[in-house]
UniProtKB/TrEMBL annotation, chain A:
Residues 74-288 form the ABC transmembrane type-1 domain. It is found in: Cell membrane. This is Multiple sugar transport system permease protein/sn-glycerol 3-phosphate transport system permease protein. PROSITE patterns: ABC_TM1. SUPFAM superfamilies: MetI-like. Gene3D superfamilies: MetI-like (1.10.3720.10).
TrEMBL record, chain B:
Keywords: Cell membrane, Membrane, Transmembrane, Transmembrane helix, Transport. The lineage of its organism: Bacteria, Pseudomonadati, Pseudomonadota, Alphaproteobacteria, Rhodobacterales. Gene3D superfamilies: MetI-like. It is found in: Cell membrane. It holds the Pfam family BPD_transp_1. This is sn-glycerol 3-phosphate transport system permease protein. Coiled coil: none annotated.
TrEMBL record, chain C:
It comes from the Bacteria. This is sn-glycerol 3-phosphate transport system substrate-binding protein. It comes from Sulfitobacter undariae. It is found in: Periplasm. Pfam families: SBP_bac_8. Residues 1-25 form the signal peptide. Belongs to the bacterial solute-binding protein 1 family. SUPFAM superfamilies: Periplasmic binding protein-like II. PANTHER family: ABC TRANSPORTER SUBSTRATE-BINDING PROTEIN (PTHR43649:SF30), ARABINOSE-BINDING PROTEIN-RELATED (PTHR43649). GO terms for cellular component: periplasmic space. Keywords: Signal.
Amino acid sequence: MSKTFARARRNEMFLAYAFLLPSLVFLATFTYWPILRSIWFSLHDVMLGDPEIYWLGLENYTRLLDDRLFWKVLGNTAFYTLTTIPISIVVALLLAVAMDSKLRGMAIYRSAFFYPVMIPSVAAGMVWVFLYAPSYGPVNEALTTVGLPRLDWLYDSDWAMPALVIMSVWKYSGYFMLILLAALKLVPSDLYEAARLDGVNAWHRLIHITIPLVSPTLYFVIIIGTLHSYQVFDYVYIMTQGGPADSTNVLTFYIYQTGFQYQDIGYASALANALLFFVLGLIGLVAVTLGRKVHYLGER
Amino acid sequence: MTTTTQTELPNSPKRFNWPRFLRDHWLHVVMIPLAALWLSPMIWILLTSLKTDVEVFDQSAGFLPEKLNFSNYPSTLSVAPFGTYLINSIIVTGSILAGQLVTITLAAYAFARMTFPFKNLLFTLFLLQVMFPIYAIFLTNFVTLQEMGLLNTLSAMIVPFIASGYGTFMLRQSFRQVPSELSDAARLDGCNHLEILWHVFLPLVKPTLIAFAIISVVTHWNDYMWPLLVTNSENVRTLPIGLGLLAKADSGADWPRLMAGTTLVVSPLLLLFMIFQRRFIDSFMHTGVK
Amino acid sequence: MKFSKSSLTRRRLLASGMAAPFVSAIPGLLTPARASETTKIQFMYPVGASGDINTIISGMITEFNETHDGVEVEAIYSGSYDNTEQKVITSLGVGEPPSLWLPINSALQTFLGLDAIEDLTEQAKSDDIYDDFISGFIDTTVSEDRLYGLSFQASTPVLYYNKDAFAERGIENAPVTWDDLLETAKALTIRDGDALKRWGLIIGGGWHDWMFEAYCRQNGLVPWEKDKVLWDRPEAVEALNFWKTMVDAGCMPKASTWQGAANDFMAGTTAMLYHSTGSLTNLRKSSPFEVGVAFMPKKKTFGAAQGGGPIMIAKKQSDAKKEAAWTFARWMTNTQNQAAWGEATGYLAVRKSSWEQPEMQAYLKEVPQAKVALDQAAYSGAFLQVPAYSRARDVLKSAIDRTLEGEVAAEAALTDATAEVNREITRVLRRQKG
């Protein structure tokens, strides 16, 4: 009995590794190898286009500690992530709940909120440069209409980053909405029926039934949202190039600048590794604070 | 509760019953302006694509184009061989997606439903791919592809993306939500892992697969930097590079044609989404979960 | 000569028996190219001006290929100036650079540092390059009296102004001095209560460091030498303080973006604009009013920095390819092509003879604005040709932005930026020396 059990377990193990193998081959070639190289590079003075490399030890990392811009960029990245993700997810969740009801015209709504995901970033960035234009831009026109002051948006170091946040909410909420909607569809509808018959109102149904039941997905969306926030690179690159006064420079863009524009691959690698730690830390934080509370439906 | 279920009492013929209307349709009342807000940039894109160069910035010219000027579309197409670009974009995104679906399904199933040593460590390794900034691995991947002799081929835009930590993560999450009674029942019927995966799990996670497929297609369809770096010839280049010709210029963008180009690049995706979202809904009806 | 030296080294390696794997990896090098074969060369270029410009370049290349037997050029569009430089350098890293490319002239020291570009001095001397190229443009490709490229698309910033706005305020002439500029900008600014309706002036963001160099030159300072920057000099500080004065007077925004600034001008949101001459055609054709072009106002003198790009030829390639590359570069910069290119884009034709072409004369009659930048070019020089120029540009932009935001005083910002950049230049130079 125990012998067959052990054999079954061993078979399962081999099968599992066989299942992982195709992914691992590609990951090893195009992810792990570059990461190892980047750790190696970060200990050297490496110049793009120049085959010579020189040992530096930890100099790139100590340089990082003294780099005023690095700390600023880290702050910007944290600001961007910690505003964009919560806002997008709240918007996405509310939208998803609304779409989960039998609303007429749902297909249209769904397309309306999802289509920004599909606009190529080159074009979306350009469009928002126009929308944010201080004097003739529609955003300011709209603010004036509702009696709010006009802003200089991308021309103002205080507002350039919030401008990117707003744009990102527009661009990505629809995507999170779709994932959450898929999860909502898996929630057994009799739960709602029972609650409704008991006289529980919509708000309480959301807090006490919907959110706990989709919490694994919510948790997942928070993590992918965090990872997805790298995408802001495209907009920084197209719209602001990190300016004005470095106010929109984020880590991914700074890494690109350092590695490709300044050809300083060694330092860029050190920055990339710092980012990796930053993200690991952030995800660890999410895992510790939220992960424990996540409710797995159908989990063994 | 949001749609008009209580229609048996006719509204007063003399006066429109606003409170009643709001109560029954409040969701629409909220959603319509919100959707309009979301759609406004797209409307601007469409309108601009029909304007002339001068109209775009002439504030006295008004919001609508004076007359619909469709000539921006053909003249956009003349800037670059968009036909070739389109075929390449389809091949590249299609191949990436096909490859990814195979790798992530297998890996996600292993992570969600099988026990083996180093599972957590391996899962973290998968996630590393998503966490590490792609610009930091550009250089090494460029060198690797060069050594493989794949530079300036369609493969150069495909192979680095075949494995997806992101997709594996997403699908694992869905697999874990499938009630275990279903797979237990299948196992008692004598199904092996592959059969369970194929017959039980995949049909159930179709919505997730579609959600992943959409984001994968969108990401690679719109990718600009990597294709620009690894391709040289017109015959292997993709659509965003054509758009880049109109946008990334010293002299300011060519607005009407950039927007015409954007519309052209987006429309296949929109069309695909329209088709898929029907399947997206249908797939829930056959899952048997509800 | 270099070529034979490298084959000698290879022979020595072969003798030692260690080179077998390397040699087998590069079989192309062992078979000498037969003369009758077509030499294929690659040319990487950015698109400086949008849309049709790409079709113009590809048209030129098609024509070249049709008229030149034995040479076939593959034109590779490579994004912006930055993208082009990155693509070229990445290819250099794997030892397969394109035969020619078109970077911004500031990259000269970067490519020299990588030992990547061919010295063209002798070929140019035996040709008419030194006689016919406008000397200000030649200077952008010279380092220590050697020539490393042929100017292809020359540009400087110029002052664009909205003639309707000027007429509406009763202003007849474009400002000539910094003081005029400030007064004119004030007069043209329109506010409605707090809401701004029109700025007097916008200095195109993203390249405002390029404009800043022009201001330094106007104040009598070339703000760099080949191994250091000099932004901490009083002339530069004074220039930045002048910008701050304009911002404080409310007639210029603290910052802008390159695309946004052009849009603002076309939409009438700013009455004056500093932007590249390369934008002339676009601004002229897309603005619903008449566009005026003038010299950038002077302080001590007129001044500008060259923004355009030269065609450079790779050093590490076969002699046959070098020869083909020279033929092509020479052809792209010939009288006819330069005239046509300048007319289509607003870039400045680099040859004196191009400006004398009948078509060019006719064009200048129709668009007299096009002549302004050429005249201004007499006061211009190369732009920030220091090692690590790319980082230098970003550091300077940040310093300017922070000053205009009021975060820091001009002098402190420029002193810090100068120290930081010079440290970086020293690092790169030390590295190059080994």
